[in-house]
Protein: 5-formyltetrahydrofolate cyclo-ligase
Amino acid sequence: MLKSLLFDRYTVRQHMRYLRRNLTHEQQNEAGIMLAEQAMKFVSIAHAQHITLFLSTDGEIDTFYLIKMLWKTKKQVYLPVLHPFSPGYLLFFRYTPKTLLQLNKFYILEPFLDITQMITLEQIDIILVPMVAFNDQGQRLGMGGGFYDRTLQNWQQYHFLPIGIAHDFQHMTQLPIANWDICLPVILTPSKIWYCY
Ligand SMILES: Nc1ncnc2c1ncn2[C@@H]1O[C@H](COP(=O)(O)OP(=O)(O)OP(=O)(O)O)[C@@H](O)[C@H]1O
Ligand SMILES: [Mg+2]
Structure:
């Protein structure tokens, strides 16, 4: 049973990652622009000041346009950084056009660990969450590290709203979900807002 669940998760991840990595630059640009417009219109984001995002890799929906729009509207953007002492956990650090970045062990760029630029979960308004696949109930599969599941544990006790972002085709009717997976209340894709409460 556990074996077939793990196999399913692996297969879904491989399939979706393959599809998204094969998008053309034009498709990625168009999706990134549409997502940015969608996100800037979304009322919780429009009213937010402190927003965490991620730098896209592996065909993830392009966050570049959204980051530029958030900067332009004077919102503060933060990126995840692997926790130096607690494996599997993330910290979030301010990201500006001047922020120096370095590659982490997953070859993902992250800000240098400058404690003056750190934001706590209590201070965050919105966490934009990467996804490999999702369904109508807001269930998600990530890349398999459990980083966002840990970050979002008991998120209702905080002030922030988690919002998943992905390409439209990453939607699936059914997903092999595990009991530690945290559901998302809202998901934004280039052409749709999914309310999952
Ligand atoms: N809250 C948690 N505490 C401890 N371990 C966890 C927690 N959430 C998930 N994990 C562990 O992390 C591993 C990966 O989880 P999972 O496959 O759900 O990752 P994911 O949701 O795809 O990744 P991510 O959240 O980084 O996008 C699992 O083996 C799981 O046991
Ligand atoms: Mg998970």
Observations:
- The longest helix spans residues 2-21.
- The helical segments are 2-21, 25-41, 43-46, 64-72, 147-151.
